[in-house]
Design a protein that fits this description.
Blueprint: H1 2-13, H2 15-38, H3 42-54, H4 62-76, H5 79-92, H6 98-111, H7 115-122, H8 124-128, H9 134-149, H10 153-164, H11 170-183, E1 185-188, E2 191-194
Antiparallel strand pairs: 1-2
Helix pairs in contact: 1-2, 2-3, 3-4, 4-5, 5-6, 6-7, 6-9, 7-9, 9-10, 9-11, 10-11
């Protein structure tokens, strides 16, 4: 028993043993942090996520940790810190995960009142990830909303229409209604109508 204990102690202080111990600590901390996150204890989770990043094990993808940190800061209302974390996450993220992270970067800028920057960040999704399906329409919608809040109705109309697509989906129909509202009534002869609605005003 004593011999086994001594051997374990020696192994812990050897380079390989130290790495193993570090890996176990990082994994434990990540598990604890995720449990705290799930129970809405975001402030308590953050130091544990930071300790995982500081670990030399490298077995837990940094992009996963940064994403959780961004989510924690977002829920705490620390949008600037959330942006920093999401921007760190997106660097090494799998391509399929990047559109979602890019969306949250844009949304955080919108919540900070940086509407011009928000629109620019949302528009990176269709530009960089055109294959990302629903994220493209969602990005165009929020780019439109960001522009509308700036009073830039011409751009808002353009992006809402792009978000609307063929208007067959629920999201598409909603975006087209926003486009109609932004555009307002269009005069045709002596009759006013909302373009795209087909009903007289």
């Amino acid at each position: 028993m004593r011999k086994t204990f001594i051997l374990l102690m020696i192994a812990a202080f050897l380079p390989g043993g130290a790495s193993f111990a570090s890996s176990e600590t990082a994994a434990d901390n990540y598990k604890k942090a995720n449990a705290l996150f799930s129970s809405a204890h975001y402030q308590e989770a953050l130091p544990l996520y930071q300790s995982v990043l500081s670990s030399s094990s490298g077995k837990i993808p940094a992009s996963d940790v940064y994403t959780r940190m961004g989510d924690s800061y977002y829920r705490l209302g620390s949008y600037r810190k959330a942006i920093d974390a999401y921007q760190s996450a997106i660097v090494d993220q799998d391509r399929t995960a990047r559109p979602g992270t890019q969306y949250w970067i844009g949304f955080c800028y919108l919540l900070l009142g940086r509407r011009d920057q928000a629109a620019a960040e949302f528009l990176k999704i269709p530009e960089l990830y055109p294959e990302s399906g629903m994220w493209v329409g969602t990005a165009y919608y929020w780019a439109g909303r960001s522009c509308e809040l700036q009073g830039r109705k011409d751009l808002a109309l353009q992006y809402y229409k792009k978000a609307g697509g063929n208007g067959k989906s629920t999201q598409g129909r909603f975006a087209m209604k926003k486009a109609e509202r932004v555009q307002g009534p269009v005069k045709q002869g002596s009759v006013y109508r909302v373009q795209g609605s087909g009903s007289g005003m």
